[in-house]
Amino acid sequence: MPYFMMSNRKLSGGEPGEDCADTMNHYFAKDSAGSKLTQFTFWEKVSASDFRKLLTDTAMSFPEIADDNNESQKHVSLFVHGYNVGWKDAAARYADLGKRLYSGAKSLGTLVLYTWPSNGSVAGYLPDREDARASAPVLADALVTLHDHIIAMQRLAALNPGKQCKAKISVIAHSMGNYVMQNALAIAAKKLNSPQLITLVHQLVMVAADVDNDIFQKDQPGASDGSLMSNLCYRIGALYTGLDQVLGASAGLKHFGTRRLGRSGIADRDNVWDNVFDLDVTDFIDQSKSIHSAALESPKSVDLIRQILTGVDRGFLPQPKH
To answer: Does residue 322 fall inside a structural domain?
Structure first.
């Protein structure tokens, strides 16, 4: 697959660093990969317009899929990494997900890395939180551009069916990357005046989400982040495990003791938007690994992510045994 990366990290020592730019200031593309994805000099910098064209051309190269074979439709997916992740670790995680889900005969399509300026140190939790909040408007602008492109393609397809978009849009967000995504989607929804007639993101998979576990409750205000997110996404799946000690510590650092979605699941499953669900992945992860990232590494949980992204109905997804 082609490889794509965008970032609002300022350069430091010739590589993406820990400081936050106020724009999406770097776009990169590469048509081959291997272990060199973690070498910054390997990436080819392109302009924002060339990045969009390369990504659009990739999506248009996907095969046309009949309506009754919806789960086979290819994806343009975005990966948003989490807290305490330096640029090289983000690139390594991206390369691993690309190998597992976006390569070979069962490739889901193509994956784009969005790397925001996480500080890459345990002591940087609160600074990371601020960088995540500061990065949200930057990602929101990219989502608005995506929205405008989708609208343009729909209008073009009305005149020429051969020009219709051949890709679904999906997102895998990990840890505090979900906080970036939460804020970005909310900002984008407000900029777009909360559009009702378009799905911006088909599948959002929230892995070990470092966000409030009551975010999607229907009794939250109509303009709340969770309401705006559920409006822009066709389906949102949150993967959680009570074994995640990183998120246990995280809850103690934030307001009023609200539990973390990625540790406890949805606060009240009878009072959430219909397109939102959670799934306990404790039985699907390798518990000998770092629990906080195990769902992105363990074969059973990665296969679960694949099934969610392809659109398998939640009633047919693998269920935990305990």
So the answer is: no
> How many Å apart are CA 95 and CA 38, to the nearest integer?
8
3-state secondary structure at position 24 = coil
Strand order in the sheet with 201-207: 44-45, 26-30, 3-7, 109-115, 75-80, 168-174, 201-207, 233-240, 276-280
Composition of the chain by helix, strand, coil, percent to 5? 45, 20, 35
Minimum mean pLDDT among 21-25, 40-44, 147-151, 198-202: which range?
147-151
Q: Do 273 and 230 touch, CB atoms closer than 8 A?
A: yes
The verdict on pTM exceeding 0.85 is yes
Q: Are strands 44-45 and 15-20 parallel, antiparallel or unpaired?
A: unpaired
Asked if residue 321 belongs to a domain, the reply is no
Host domain of residue 87 = 3-315
Percent of the chain with pLDDT over 70: 89
User: Residue 182 is inside which H or E element, if any?
Assistant: helix 177-191
Domains in the chain, number = 1
* 311 CB-near residues (< 8 Å, 6+ apart): 70, 71, 168, 202, 203, 235
Express each pLDDT in 103-144 by its tens digit.
Answer: 999 999 999 999 999 875 655 566 678 888 889 999 999 999
Domain of residue 164, CATH code: 3.40.50
Q: How much is the average pLDDT of 18-43? A: 85
Q: Is 320 among the domain residues?
A: no
Q: CA angle 86-309-57, nearest 5°?
A: 75
Question: Does residue 33 belong to any structural domain of this protein?
Answer: yes
Name, in order, each residue with C-beta under 8 angstroms of 294's C-beta and a sequence gap of 6 or more: 241, 285, 286, 287, 301
Q: Map tokens 């970036």 to a residue.
A: 180
At residue 88, the pLDDT reads 93
The confidence score (pLDDT) of residue 284 equals: 97
Q: What integer pLDDT is reported at residue 60 of this predicted model?
A: 86
* Spatial distance between the Cα atoms of 191 and 176, rounded to a whole number of angstroms: 23
Whether residue 79 contacts residue 89, with contact meaning beta carbons closer than 8 Å, is answered with no
